[in-house]
Each structure stands twice: as C-alpha cells, then as structure tokens.
## 1
Amino acid sequence: MHSALMHDAGVALLPLEHLSPAGMSPELARWLRGERAWEARKIALFDRGFALYWSRSRDLCQSDPHWIPPRSRNVVVAEEPNRVRPYVALLNTSAWLLDASDLTPDASHPEFIAYLLAHADRVAESGEVTHAVLTTAAWWFERTDVECEAFAAAARASTRPDASGFAAMADALPWLRELHHERLRPMEDGAARRTIPQSGLEVPLRLENRPPQLVGAFETAAHRAVEAFLAPWRGRNTSALENLCSWLRDGIPKVALYEGDRQVWNCETPEDLAGVRSALASADAVSVRSIASDLARMEHHTRLFCAAVRGDLPDPPHRGEQGGYCFLDAHANVLAYNLRESGMDRYHGPALPFAREMLGARAAHEWAHLADAAGWIRSERSDREFERSQRVLAEQLDAVIDAAVPPVRSANDGDGVTTTGEASAGILLTKILLQRLPDYRANRLARYFMSPAEREAYLRHNIRSLRGAYDKRGVWRMLVRYLYEFQYLQPALGLLELDDPRAYFLASTGFDREFIESGILTGEAFDALSEATADLLTGFQIDPLRIQLPHDPASDVAAR
C-alpha cells in the first residue's frame, strides 16, 4: 500500500484508489486483515454495502435530476471511541466517515451501510446535516419490504453517535415510502401537496406534519452526538496551558498566534503571554495540547525551510483572510496560526484526522510562495517555447468548445469567456489557467519540504469534485481548473505514487460523468488537453544557489 496516511492509530483510511463500484481491492482487504485485524465478514459487509450504494445511486441519478451521482471518496472508519467529531468534512469533503459500529457483522447490514453513504453524499453536497433524512426519501421508493426491514433492524441496533436519528428514520419508513416525486412518482394533477425544495419530493397534505417531526428527531440526535463527543474532553487543564505558555516564552518558536483578527502572541515579544492565556482560558486540555503540536509542526517547517535558504526573502504580501490552516503573517516573516480557523473548532476536542499533515503541507507551501515571489523558481524555456505551449492549449480548448453540442454551448454563452470579442475562448481560458502559475511553482518547491504523509494529505485534500464551485454557465472555467488540478497527480509534482493517476482523478472528481459521459468532451480530448497543460507547466527549475533542497521526493518512493 502506498498511502502514508493509513497508519493513524485511531482511524482506518480506505484510500479511494482501492475502491471500485464492487467494493475494496484485494490488496486493501489483505492490508486490513493483516494491519487492522479486520475479519473476512467485516470486509464482505463493507463490500456489499458499498456495491449497493453505488448501483442504487447510479440508477437514481439517471432518473432523478436532484440525486447526487456516485463518486469515489476515501472512507475513514473511526475505530477509537470519541476519536472524530461527528459530521466533519474530512479531507475537504473527499472522505466519507463511518463509525466502527457500522461495520459490525452481527449488528449491521449492507442496507444500512449503503444508505449511510448516500446520506453522507447529501450532507457533503448541501453542507446541512439534519434535512438529509428527508431529502433522500427517493432512496426508499424501490426498496422491498425485506430491504427496508434489514435497514430498520440495523438502525435500531446501531451504537453510532447519532443512532437515535436513524432509528427515527426506521420508524418513519412506512410514510416515507408513501411520498411522491415530480418525476419518479408524480401526484395527480390538482392534488394538494407540499413540495420539498431541491429534492423533487411532494408531500400529500395528510402527511405534511411528518417531515418536520423526522427532521426534528434527527436534529436532536445530531446535537446529542456532538455533545457526547465534546463531553469527555471538557474541563480546563491549567497544566496544559502553562506548558504551552512556557514553551512559547522559553522556546520562542518562529510563529505568530491569532484569535480572529487579533494577534495574541508573536515571537518578537515572547514574554507577553496575556493574550494567549485569555484566548485559551476555556479551551479543552486536549485542544491546548493539539494547538501546541500544530505550532511545533509549523516551527519545524520554518526551521527546515530557513536552513535551506541562501538569500533574503521578500516581505509577505498583505492578506485579507487569516486562515488556510496557517498563513504568512503580513507583519513579520513568520507563519501564523488562527485559533478561529474557518470550518474548524480548535478550542474543543482533539484535532481532526490528517489535519496536522495538511497543516504541515500548507506551511511548506506558504514558505515556497515567498521563494517564488523572490524569483527563485524560474522557467528554463524561451519565450517562444512558452508562447507555443499557450497557443497549443488555447487551440485545443477552442476545438473542444466548437465541437460541444448546442445545448452545452448555449448554456455557457453568458460565462464571460465565450461571449467576449477580444480573443477566442481558448485564449481567455488559457490566461485563466496561467493565473495559477505562482501556486504551481510554489508546489514545485514545497514538495521537497513535505513528508510523504503531508504530500498525500495535500493531494487528497485538493483533488475533489468542483461541482458546487461553479454554476451551470461556468463549465469551461471549471474545465481549466480541473486541468490544472490534474497536474497534482503528475510526476512533476510527485505528491503521491499511484498506479493509474488518470483513473484516480476521473473517479474522485466525477469528471468522467460530468464531462466525458455527458458528451462535453471525449476521453481522447481530455488526454490531449492534459498533455498540453503539462507541457505549458513544464520547465520550472529551483535556483540551487538560493535554495539547498533537503531531499528529492522521488527518493521516498524508491526507498519503499
């Protein structure tokens, strides 16, 4: 197994490249049996549940425009009690989270696992937890009584943190199966109904009180699950905070600490600890220790990078957003850490799985941006060669747009790319892609300062579906974003060794369904565009007189 993230003691990561519509690969199954002591029945239970999820979601999305198509994600199984906060978006929504109890052969069932995965798709897509029990009602329309009974038995026997919500859903199955749908099961014309937005579902008036009751039951279950997670960690531990303060004062790590927009500590005045004590006065002890470990990881990357530099770095640019796991402080050449990081709770409970690896990757990436701003990552290609590569990509993009079926072209006429008269759409899209050159150059350098686990976390975090990031008129902009991010999987960056990077990309992003199966472009056109993008981004070299690289990431692969 190539994954460096699979050795977290508290969770089991099932990498998406080892999952198919039929379940897990034989290699992954052998690893789980040998390293995690998974019994054969547990693996078979997962495989059957995953296969049911895939086939049913595939069939539903063909007839229901509101249903979310199946796509490969990593699966994270929380194997230690209270290890992972419920409902978190692991790896930037690129992972499903299952509880260990979901895979207990004597209590669970493939029907339960299949629905849990479909339910998690809806939560990841909407960002809303409680309504998914309702908006997935179409799942039950074609289920037999035996299938529903199997789900209900497993839901009632479940010990997962929010089990009471799924038990309420099991009780609701009789009336859920009586709901209607604008396409799958339309009501008679003129019949009184309530509609459920963005689901296609129609509720007969005789059932109109049932949906709010079910959502309320799941909301209660969700709140209880989060409270149950937080409860064991609650309680201020003075020694943890004092240990952190002592390290900041005596060790003087080259970092800055923020609480929102307010700086509460910096390495220039290490003895001033009042802001840290105030900010973390009510934080859990486990969180304080986690923050200390995060800051130590940042300090490690700062020392590693600064030891490699042979020259003066420019000042960091001013940044409005103080986040992204860590960021370069605009007031000093140090990495900064925001206690109020968007989308995270750094005050309560342990760190999320893989978050520290992603933090390390971001630390290396931030320093690499400064090296790029200093001009230490240069192209060895001539202007003529670079212009030729731009022209080739632009011409191929124009050809794809010209060959698109009329509905696709007309839907994107207002995207600001195809309607301008200044240049062809391909030229404008190529310019949009080139706006990411500083980021690409930074990654070319940062990879040398990342551990294998950090590189892998960075890749799994960034290769994801962009379906929710662009509206229906932005398909061409989304295409060039995908072309750029596909380069994370290419040898030039070397972030993760994969047997088939193309298959990983297509499956994990849904690109195959959204672009190839839909007829927007052919597989051959995608390959040609990817090759042209790789050629456009080739030829960047790191100045050896300015930076002494610590190691070659390729050596990590060779050493395994």
## 2
Amino acid sequence: MDYKREIAKLFAPHLTEEEAYSLLVPPKDIAMGDICLPCFRLAKTMRMSPVAIADKLAAELTLPPFVAEVKSVAGYLNFKFSSHDFASTVLGNVLSQGAVYGKSDLGAGKTVCIDYSSINIAKPFHIGHLSTTVLGAALYRLYKELGYNVVGINHLGDWGTQFGKLIVAYHKWSSKEEIERGGVRKLVEIYVKFHQEAEDHPELDEEARSWFKKLEDGDEEAVSLWKWFKEITLADDVPIYDRLGVHFDSYAGESFYNDKMDAVVDELAAKGLLTLSDGAQIVELDGMPPCIIRKSDGATLYATRDLAAAFYRKSTYDFAKCLYVVAYQQNLHFKQWFEVVHKMGYEWYKDLEHVAFGMVSLEDGAMSTRKGNAVWLTDVLDKAVEKAAEIIKQKSPDLDDPNEVAEMVGVGSVIFSALINNRIKDIEFRYDKILNFDGETCPYVQYTHARCASLLAKAGEWQAPRDYGALSDDVAKDILRNLERYPSLLREAADKNEPSMITRHVVDLCKLYNKFYFDNKILTAPDGVREARLALTLAVKTVMENGMAIIGIRLPDKM
C-alpha cells in the first residue's frame, strides 16, 4: 500500500489526487504525525482561511483504518498512522518485493538519452571526469529503475585540431613501439611536449593544422593514426569504466556527426535563421549572445556538432528526455543551442536538459592536460583502495577477503564523494575525508550494512513477526517512514535529476538504524519483539542495497 497515495485520495473534490500527492509532506515535528497537508493552497478555492480549512477537513474526512488520528494545527492537517498497521504494511512491502522494492513502470514506453562522461581521446581520464561519469551512470540506473528505456551515450571528444598536434608530436618525438608500450600516458606525454615546443616554434601549430586538414580530407595515414589513438585510449579507459560499474550503449563521438552537420546548417539557412557576422555564420538569440554555427574559416563548433547529435538522437531514439551531464561552466552553451532548436520550430527542445554539476579539485589545486598536471582517475582509485586496505587491516585483521572489501570501500568512497551533495556544489577531494568511518561517508554506509548482515547471519532462521508493537518507539517509526518514502523519493530524484537525494536518504537511514541498534536489544530480545526487530533490520538492509545499487556502490557483508 502507498500510504501517501491513499491519503491523497481523501481530498476530492477540493484537490486532484496528483495535486494532493505532491503537497503531502512529513511534518517538521514528527510528534505531530506521520504526514501532513498544508491547507494554504485551498484557501482560494474554498474561500476560507487555511486554519478554518484544516479544522473543517479534520471534522469531515472519513479516515481509512490505517489512520489512527487526524489533527488540525495552524493550517496543517496532520495524520498519525496506526503503529501496528503502518509497520506491518511497510515491512511487508519491503520484504515481499526485496530487490525490486522501489521499481516502477512510471517510464514505460518512454526513452531517455543520457550523454555523460564524454572523455577526450588521447587525453587522460582524470579526476575532473569523475562527476559526469558517476552522476550520469547513477541517472542511467535511476531511470531504468523507473521503467524507462535508457540510452547511455559517451559522446567521445574524438575530433579537432588536437589530433593534428598529436600526429606531429608522434612523428617528431615517438614511435609505434613507445606508444604501444606506454599507452595513453605516452600520448599525453608527447601532447604536452608539443605545447611546450610550440611556445618557441609557432610553426608547429601550422603543421598541426595541416595534418588535421589531411584527417578531415580522409588521408590514409592521418585516418589510420587517428583510429589507432582511439583504440589505445579506449583500451586504457574501458577498465576504469568497468571498475566504476559504468555502462554505455553508444560511443558515438564528435567524429560520428561530421557528415550530419551540413543538413542542420542547410535547414537553418532555409528557415532564414543564419546571419553573417565578420564572416561567421550565427543565429541571433534573444537575451543572450548569438550562437556561432560556422567560424569565418568554415570550421564548425561544439554547438554545430551538438545540434547534429540532438537531431540524430531524436530521429533514432525518439527520446522523451535527452540529458546532458556537463559542468555548469557550459550553462550558456546549452542555453544557446537549445534555443536554436526552439527557433527552428521543434517543440522537443523542451525535452533537452542540461544536468549541470560543480567542479572537482584536489587539495593542491587545478589541473591542465596541456601543462601535464592532470590527475589520472585510475591513480585516484588505486590510492583510495590502498588507503582503505590500510584502515581495514587495522580494524578487521581477520577478514576473509580484505582485498575485495578494500576495492569496494576505496572505489565506493570515490563515487560517494561525488554523489553525497547536491550536484551543483563544487567538490574538494580529500582522501582522509572520504575514507572516514564516521559521518556521512561511504565506509559509514558500508559498515552499517555489514552490521545488519552480521546480525541477520547470527539470527539464523526466524519467523515473520506477528506483533509489531515493538516498533512503536520514535526511532523505529522514523525508520519505517524512511523505508515507506523510498519509492516516491526515487521519482523525486528523477524529476530533479539529483541522485544525491538517494545517497542522503540512505545515509539518514543508516543514522536512524544505528541509533535503533544501540538503543534496543535485537538478538536477545523476547520472542515476538525479536522477530519484529529482525524484520526491521532486514528491511533496512534491503533498502540500503537497492539505493546504493542505483548510486553504483557495492556493500560488503563483512568489514
């Protein structure tokens, strides 16, 4: 039973079920009840004050059996559930559904395209790619959980003058054997050397432009080297994606759209949207700078390629939403080309969404590939796992599989650091902070899960509870509210494209359960009480696993 849904049905004809459902929230003071309806929205239609409306509804509503009490308080209508009915229904739902608790068919028949990670070929997969990669992957899993058909797209940065630079650098300072031995790190090394040398020898830039022109014209050697650089980069990066549990359905990058841009430019011209400005072709926009479609030398830009990609995705996937998981520095870029789609007359421009996020930095500052001080993500993961292993060795020296647990904790902590706070917030990455076993961290969540798993393993077989009276205290009620809210929280997180809502929900659940664990005997509790508390423990463990699976974090049974 969806308690919130059943309560929402009570307010007809004053509110539709969906209107009431969206207004229902937990009271600020849990002593007032389990859920409440602010009556301010009804003041205009019922022509009464919110206080009078709450009083009237409290006296008139026919309450379902699971509602023990309804009270009018200062314009709010507060509902208190029957402890027994609420506990038995919530735990029954969680335990009967298990791994599918929270799943729905909300998005059945609809497709969501998600553009995330979008690494650059022949450049490091660095810490700056962390947020887009794990945020996009979490959204991918979240929309899947809600029944959508999801297309994960890695829009590779595999085109541009940097490939001319790389070809020049390869010819001058490297060899096939060196590149095959050193992989993408060697490619980065010669790319950095190019920029260092070009400061004193600007003629190198002209040589690079010449090689890129050859690539654009299909020169056999240029194309062969370009393909080889892509293969080397992906061979290095795919294992990182595997380690992070990240999946893509398409690796169609910028080069894929080379033969698809002219059609978009031609349509813009046919619709009279293109104007010339200093030789460049632009689209004038209201309230923001114009969107440049072609530069004066005829070269296309990111906007041109993004437009071509959007039209391709719409015709190929007929998406209901197309999300772009890109840092907030690109806000204007997306506003501009989204508006171009609008001016072209396509209503689906409303389905294009920029999922912006903050920047990631290390304690010692910013990074730059050109200067050679980018921090490789694989090195960050290795270091996090190494530090996790040291901590685990101190805390649990007899653990059966310490290396596997260290991998779960280390990698999970890196992912968690990007998904615990609102996505728009900048992140300063610190190992000591993310690997702390206390507070709002991945190890804290994983340790709580291990605590639940250990307790249930010790309990052995047990019967389903007959009496839920042992779950009537405030902390148990808070846990039940958290568990009951989980399915609707997933919908809210998708509405806002905000996976951190799930991460925080699980952290809050861990805090509540640990308080419950320390305040109550479980294994040694009297019969009846023991079963109810074990059922609560299993339900907590289940929701933790379901939520963290969406975030992309594995939870060990022992730590």
## 3
Amino acid sequence: MKRREFIRDAGLAAFGTFALTRGTFAESRVIAAQNATVAGLQSAMASKDMTSVQLVDFYLKRIATVDKQIDSIIELNPDARSIAAEMDRERKSGKVRGPLHGIPVVLKDNIDTADKMKTTAGSLALADDPTPKKDAFIVKRLREAGAVVLAKTNLSEWANFRDNDSISGWSGRGGQTRNPYILDRNPCGSSSGTGAAIAAGLATIGIGTETDGSIVCPASICGIVGLKPTVGLASRSGIIPISATQDTAGPMCRTVADVAAVLNVIDAADSEDTVTMHKRERVDYTNFLKKDGLVGMRIGVARDYWGRRKDVDTVLDSALETLKKAGAVLVDVKFPNLRKFGDAEFLVLKYEFKDGLEKYLRGRNSRHKTLDDLIKFNRDNAAKELPYFGQTIMEDSAKLGDLNSKEYKDALETCRRYSRDEGIDQAMNENKLDAIIGPSNAPTWMIDTVNGDCGSGYVGSSSLAAVAGYPNITVPAGLFRELPIGVSFFGRAWSEGTLIKAAYAFEQMTNARREPKFLATFR
C-alpha cells in the first residue's frame, strides 16, 4: 500500500505519534482526530482513507493515555468497536445513515443507555441498579443516525444538585475531573466530563445536559462550543432529572458546525416527553452556517454583565468589535429584573428535583425508591460519597411537598415573569433584536476540596436563558493566561438557527479556540 499523508480540510491535520492508518496506528499517516470535524472525518471515511473502527481505536488509545491526566471518562463502552465495525460494513455496502455515521460520541453519565454501561449520575447509589430498560430517546436518535456510543463521561454528582458547597466535576463514582487547560483548575459542572473530554480530543462529539449553566459553563471553561437548546427541542426521557421546566440535553463539540450536525439529529418529537410535541417547523441547522451571518443582525449587548471583571470585559469588548466588523448592529440592553428570580428558581428546582427523580427511580426499578433512600445511602457510605461536601440540597428537597403546592406555583410564575415576559422577550421586542450577547464565563477557579467551588468574582450569563427555557450557545472568544473565555448568544424560544448563524460567523472571524497546551506532551 502506498503511504501518503493527507489533509482533507481544517478538521484534518498532522498529529504526531498516535497516528491513524488503514488498519493500524503508525507515524507515517496521521489525522489530528483531537481536532477533527464531523465533516472532515466523513470525507476521510468516504474516500476510504480511514474507517470508523480505526477512529474508535484512535480514541480508545488516546483515552488510555491522555485521560489519566484529566479523568473525564467514567466508563468505556465494551461494544464500541463492534458497533463501529457494523457502521463500516454498512458504508461498504453503500448505506450511509447521515453525517454522524461512524462518528464516536461520549454521553454524560446521567443519560440512559440500555447496553453494558451503567447510568449513575456519578453516584455509587445507582452503580448496582438494574440497567435501564431502553436507551434514552436522544441516544436512540444518535444510534439510528449511525453514531458510535464510545463512553460515558464523569459529571458533578447528581448534576451538581446535591449540596451548596459542592466541587464541580466531582462524583463519588468518577472522582475529580480536571480542566485540560490547567490541570489544577476546575472544568465547571455539571457536564464537566463531556466538556473536558471534547476539549482534550477524546471523541468527536459529546452530549451534556443543562438545568442552569451545566452545558454552557463547562463548554466555555473548557474552550469548546456548547448549545443549550430551547426546553422541548430535545427529549429528556431516559435522562436522570432535576427540573421538568429547565432540563435539556444538548451538543458539546469543538466547532459550531458539529453542533449543528448533532442538533439535526436530536431535534425530534418524543411522545414520552410531551414538551417536545410542540407544533413547529423543524429546520436543517446546517443551513445557518454562513460566514456572513452577522451582516445586518441586531445584537443586544447585555451590559448588566460588564464591569464585574476587567479580564472578562477585555475579551467581551474585543468580541463586540468583531461583531461590528462583521456587520452586526449592537444595541445596549439592561435587565432590571435580573436579580429577582434567583431564590424562586432554586425553590422550583428543589420541588421538581424530588418529583422528577422519584419518578425516574421507580421507572428504573431502582433499589432506592425515594430521595430519602438516597440520602440514607450517602450517610451509610459517607467515606466514599461525603468526603468533601454534604447533601444539603437533597435534604431540603426531600422535605418539600408536591407540585400542587402554592409555594411552588408562585415561584414558577415569578421565574417565568422575570426571565421571559419582563426579561428576554421584553428586551428583544422593544429593541427588535435577533440575539443577545453576554459572557459565558470568567477564568475558572482552582479545584479546592476544602472550600468547594469558589464563586467569588465569577461572571456568567446562563441563568436568564436557563430559567426562561430558551436557547443559549457559547463559543470560544479568547484566553486569559491560558484559560478559555467564551461568549454566549441567547434569545427567544426556538431561535437556535439564528443563534447558530451568529455563533458560526463569529467563530469563523475569530478562530479563537486553542487546544490545551498539555496535549503537546502526547504528540
């Protein structure tokens, strides 16, 4: 066989000693799989320069080496190679299911898979529970699209809804995930493992979940793209819940184009999750990948988030200059009700957490039937489950009543009023906006097993869109002392296409993403 190096597009490039070839790893032919795009990998597989099995082997070898440093993967799928082999057989016979055919994906470990992997939300309490009876609906969609489920990723245990003094990225089952940019820094939560794994090039695409910030924060802090869809775009059935009104799954990838490709697959109605049955026209999100997409777009600048940290302001101001150069019209906006729904949101989440989690446990036939059962398990296994922080949120939630409570209903109405009616909707309608921009994150904090997460001086804009149930996409905007800073574009319900258009044009103008420097050690 004639040996030759090839570079198909920006997603394919030289990568050093862990090289991918037809049938084997070698230094003579290489693909930078840690930066490869879905389109680039599809091109390589279509031209028979590589196979899905080879790609899976590449990632498995990379996980075995790189992930020793960051601990992002909680469990490997023992069937990944056989699934990839089947996708290769289908391709050889002329059947290609779509852009995700043969592409490896990692899933946050609160997403059900009816296979040989566990689904635990990072908790040892679920480690010996029965395997879910069926895949989560979004996993079913991914498998049908030809994606290869490679692994489950670590997360902040119970999606960071266990204790007020938690350490993001830590779980009793998976330990502490580290930020791949600076290893003693936090990767943010709760989709910490997914963010770190994609940033470190351990898979092509990842799926996280968000209630408030749990896609946006780890994506931005780990220097990748993450999209929290409108609640109701992606099914939540088969996903361990926190909140029926705020939970959603979403893609976490290295490029906006990859996010669009994944969103096309998971945007589907599921009769088991009635919020997805919203009557609307579904679109091809890749049609919004336009380099000139910002021309004439009216972008609201959420000035409430400026002036809190100079390092963040510097990145934000540079982003605004980019938007103006790209032809966008910038309009300053303020949200006077920004601090009026925080307590109400927390109360809503605690009510819905108890209700949703106990329903999930019953459906799973878990040996733990109630939130009180889980609390007791943690106390009985405190050395493994409670070594660094407690479970005050769980304990508070367990004391609450059902969702018919007036207290709950009033809190929910407060949330919707100030985040939607007198929040995003009002600002966008009054200023005729297409989207709003704000900071995704400040430089991440040190991992601290004594004091937990440090919120001092942190800046983020996830809550408005999260509480409203509206979409939010974060895209890399720069680095501060080697730590990624992202910007968020958010807006009305079902405006994912518009946000993708803005984020893609911004991404193409800035090319701000840089891979973690520590990865050079593995070249």
## 4
Amino acid sequence: MKQYSRIFRYLGAYKGKIVLYFLFTLLSILFSIISIGMLMPFLQLIFTGEAGIKSSNNIIIQSVNDFLNNSLDKRGKVPTLGFICILMMVFIVLKNIFLYLSYYILNPLKNKVVNQLREELYDKTLRLPIGFFTEKRKGDLMSRMANDVGEVEGSVVGTLEGWIRDPLTIIVTLTVLFLISVKLTLFILILIPVLGLVIGRVTKSLKRHSEQVARKNGETFSIIDETLGGLRVIKAFNIEKLLRNRFFKTSEELLEAKNQIAYKRDLASPLSEVLGVLLFTLVLYYGGRLVLRGELLEASAFLGFLGIFYNIINPAKSLSTSFSNMRKGGAAIARIEEILTTPVTVDDNPNGKQLTAFTDKIEFRNVTFAYADAVILDNINLTVKKGQTIALVGSSGAGKSTLADLVPRFHDVTGGEVLIDGINIKDYSLHSVRSLMSIVTQEPILFNDTIGNNIALGSHHSTDEQITNAAKIANAHEFIIKKENGYDTNIGDRGTKLSGGERQRLTIARAVLKNPPILILDEATSSLDTESERLVQDAINNMMQNRTSIVIAHRLSTIRHADEIIVLQKGKIVERGNHEELLAQNGFYKKLVEMQEVR
C-alpha cells in the first residue's frame, strides 16, 4: 500500500468529508440490512400467523418480537402485515437517501484527488531542470500526464468507494449475522478466504502487464509526435513505410499487453461471482440441513439470514474487482511517482536575495559543468561587464549553449560559481534572476494564441501601445497589420501560420517588451533565409542597444562588432578577443571565418 501513500495524503486534507461519507455509508448499510431483516417477521407471520421468532435468544430480535407481537395483539394479522411492509419500505427509502448522500460527498472528493494529482504532476514538470528532459522522450512524458493519470482515475481513485463501502458492508453484515447465528457465520468465515486467495492469484500479474501498456503508450506518443513534427522529412526521404512499420509494431505490442490485462481483469469479476454463488450454495445446504434437524433457526429466520448474507456477495465481488483495479493502477502510480519524486536540482531559493537591477557584471569563476560523467565545461573564467556584447563561437558540442544556460540557471554549475554583481547566482531568488533576462532561441517558441498575446507573454500588464512599439522595434509591425485580424490573429500550433522570419521577429518583440537589462541570443538567425536574416538581425541590433548581451553565433558575420568573442572547444576557452584581434592570432577563429568566407 506504500505506493498509494500520495493518494492517501491527498485524502487526508478532506478528513471531515471522509467522516461524513463513512457515516452516511454506515447508515445506508444498516438500513439495508434492517430492511432485509424485516423479511423474518414477515415470513414468520405468513407461515405461522405469529410475528416473533421464538427460537432466537438475541436481545435485539427479542425486542422486535415483543414490539410486533404487541402490534399483533392490538391490531390483528393483516394490519401488522401492512405495518411490516411499510417499515420495510421506509427503511429502503432511508437506505437510498443515505446512499445518495454518500455519493454526493464522495464523487467531488474523487475528482479533487485526481485534479490535485494532475496539477502536481504538471507543476513538477514545470520545475524540473532542462537537463531532465534530454533523457526523457516527450511522448513518454505526455503519456504519463494523460494516460497514466487517467489510469489512476479509473483504476485507483475510481474504486475509492470500494475501499470503504465494501469492507464496511462485509463487516457490518457479518456482525449482524453473528447476532443471528454464531455457528452458521463461523462456517461462512472459514469459506470466504478461499475466494480472496483465488482472486489474488488471478490478478497477480496485472501490474506487470500494466507497466508494459504504459511503456508502449509512451512509445506510441513519441512516434506520433516525431511523425507530426517531421512530415516533410518523412515524405522527402520516402520513409513512410519505415515509420508505418515502427508504429504498427509498437501498436501491436500495445494491443497484446492490453489484451492480457483484459483477460485477467475480466476473469476476476465472473470468477468472484461464481465463487460467491458457490459459497452461498454451500451455506444454503449447510444451514438448511441444520434447520431440518432442528439444530439452528426456524425456517423464516434462516431465510432472513440468507437474505442478509446475500448482502455480502456483491460487496465481496466488487472488492475483488477493486483489488484487481488497484493492482492494474499500481503501475501507473509508479510511473507518476517517478516524475514527482525526481529531485529538482535547480530550485528557487525561498530565502534568496531579490535581484532588482543589474548594475555591474556577470562573472564565471572557475566554472565546471559535467553531465552524466561527461565534462561539458572545464574551468571557465569569463567576465561580462554591463553594456557589453559577448559572443560565444565554436564547433557544435563545444559547450556554447550550456555556458549561456548557466546565466538564467537552466543548469547549476557542478564546480566553481556564476556571480551577478559579485553575488553567487544561487543566493538570489530564481524568479528575480530570470525577470532581468530575455532569451531568443534558434527555434522560435510560440503558443497557439493570438499575435498580441504571444508578444505580451510574461508581460501581463502591457498596453496595446506598448505591444505595438515592441513589434515595431522587432521589425514585425508591418507584417502583423497585413494579417486579417492584425494583432488578434491566431498563429496556430507553434506559430505554423507564420513564416520562420515572422515567428522569430515575434519572439524578439516579446523580448523587447519585457525590456530586460540582459539578453541571451542563441543562434537566433541561423535557420533563416537571407532576407529574413537581415530583418531579424536589424531587429536584434535594435533590441541590443544599451543592453548586456550574450550571443551564441553560428554565422560569424552577425558578431563582428561584439566587444569580445569567446572561442570554445571541448568545453574550454581556446581563444578570446574582438574580431580583428582573433584574426591576427591566426588560430581556430580565423579558420571558422575562412570557412564561412567572412572578411
């Protein structure tokens, strides 16, 4: 049950409602048993003309006997019979009223638990460091947030009712049966564990098959995501058959795992019903034999006993189904827990200082960064003074993006320290550090919303005038006003309704609107055509005025006027200086320039 501790912790916040649910459930069960128990005096009156069950020495039944015999003496048989029927009806109505009230309490509670789990999972996903997502497939993460949460909702939380109602029904019913006949109830208790043992063996492998389903679901999501994102390449290289075969193979494996779950899960319910009926038949035979021998109850009391005992069959069946569902949902909970328990290596400092303004410099002091035993940055020492533009160049994998990512703390250093205005960046509030920065990436990150809302992202209180001015600085205003709805035009999923240059200019407008003192530009023009590159580069130049900029450059022509160019190779700084100084060194930078024919 340890794996369900999170669910129980969520439920702990609603103790009052759980107590109410327990109370309403208990009352519903009691009135259900009493309504069935009224069959005993009813049958006794029909068979013998008497309302009491004389062979019972139970104080509760004796009290009912006295009450009904008194009614029989005063009113006669027919009115007493009608009175018994009215009592049965009243008890059934009361049972269903309290049953409805229990559902009224429980169903919103179940929905809140699932909603809390989903929100906590999403919130944790937002807080996890960037490095976490390099190891995980996006499709697998989507599967955990969608399919696994849905599985928990259906298999675990969905059977929450059975965790309380069914055991409570069985316990209360057995207690009443003990009051009627100890000997016959003990016989039942000897047989019931057989039912649980058989069902347990049937459902034992459900968790293993559920893990296979969850894993295959993740693979399916990944293939779909890769297919939708790479349709041009797939069609251009005629690899539709390859992708189709890969998807079909994963889909067939998913189908097989689902079928195995269905076979075991669906077997649990009919098997429990068959065993329940078998148990009922054995009790019917054993108890009937005792009645015929005169060793136990009268016939009417025995029939009432059977009616109450039958009240156990459905809860026992439901409990076995709930148990199998919990086994099945255990795999989903385990996959969700893997995300929720992942340590947040880059977390906010709740007691950190507020970085309200950037006044002096950013300093990398003996910085080392290693990831999975691979050294990405090795003993980096670099100072970026306020107002400077620093460019990072080098081969792919040299550590340029990682070095820039240390400034907004997308990663934390594994050695050395990064300082802003002389204070270790970890000593600041994470939110305050990032609030002074804007980032423009190589791949424009846009959302399925309007142009205006995408520009205003992160600047919630911006006016229309401010948004327009930011778009003008980013050379985006002219193409925006030509759109059918102007700034209210929806740009589609990831901005697919716009060209590459238009998308990039929107991200620059977003950065301009935020008006940060520090800019990080990660190869913002490398994927654009010549005309778009010129427009975007002009926008970048406008944005960089009077700001401190760290530029990751692929096209060296864009950083010729940087205050300092840092050349990285295999995580180390191998050259540094301005454009002319580096050319004079006749080193690696000059080779890069010559390869791009930049003079």
